[in-house]
TrEMBL record:
Keyword Transmembrane: yes
PANTHER family with a match to the protein in the record: NADH DEHYDROGENASE [UBIQUINONE] 1 BETA SUBCOMPLEX SUBUNIT 3, NADH-UBIQUINONE OXIDOREDUCTASE B12 SUBUNIT
The protein's name: NADH dehydrogenase [ubiquinone] 1 beta subcomplex subunit 3
GO cellular component: mitochondrial inner membrane
Membrane topology according to the record: Single-pass membrane protein
Function text: Accessory subunit of the mitochondrial membrane respiratory chain NADH dehydrogenase (Complex I), that is believed not to be involved in catalysis. Complex I functions in the transfer of electrons from NADH to the respiratory chain. The immediate electron acceptor for the enzyme is believed to be ubiquinone.
Record's keyword annotation contains Electron transport: yes
């Protein structure tokens, strides 16, 4: 108890509740099966694609995420350079 620092233990869900079917991992599973292979950790990664966890943002959205603050900092630095 002395070293918890106010953090409670995180409860991890059982990986057996996640299904690969209906996720992009299903394609990987089929390609591996065609070669006689299987992904033993596929179900462990399926949670990333289940609603509520997946981030469906676009590439452009990721690039522009901090644009307004970056542009403001750029203008501010230009303004500072002009005055000094």
């Amino acid at each position: 108890m002395a070293h918890e620092h106010g953090h409670s233990k995180m409860e991890l869900p059982d990986c057996k509740q996640w299904k690969i079917e209906g996720t992009p991992l299903e394609t990987v599973k089929k390609k591996l099966a065609a070669r006689g292979l299987r992904d033993p950790w596929g179900r462990d990664e399926a949670w990333r694609y289940v609603s509520g966890f997946a981030n469906n943002g676009s590439f452009i959205g990721a690039l522009l995420q901090g644009f307004k603050w970056g542009f403001a900092a750029f203008v501010g630095s230009l303004n500072k350079d002009k005055h000094h």
